[in-house]
Amino acid sequence: MQLAQSFDAVLTVQSQDGREATADSVMGLLMLESAQGQNVVISAEGSQAEQALQAVCQLIEQKFDEDE
């Protein structure tokens, strides 16, 4: 959520069943009910959209900086 708010962009997450939430809304993301292993589509709009998407992709690739 902090990452989503740090860019001049609106990040949107879409679940497999088509529901959408903005990435800066914890409640909205929880309402998507997406589980580990499910695919989501992340899109961005705004002057820093590309940078925001790159940062989110990096965070996901790093497994949200969690220890395994």
UniProtKB/TrEMBL annotation:
GO terms for molecular function: transferase activity. Its EC number is 2.7.11.-. It comes from the Bacteria. The keyword Ubl conjugation does not apply. Its main location: cytoplasm. It is found in: Cytoplasm. Pfam families: PTS-HPr. One of its GO terms (cellular component) is cytoplasm. GO terms for biological process: phosphoenolpyruvate-dependent sugar phosphotransferase system. It is an enzyme of class 2 (transferase). Keywords: Cytoplasm, Phosphotransferase system, Transferase. Belongs to the HPr family. This is Phosphocarrier protein NPr. It comes from Vibrio cholerae.
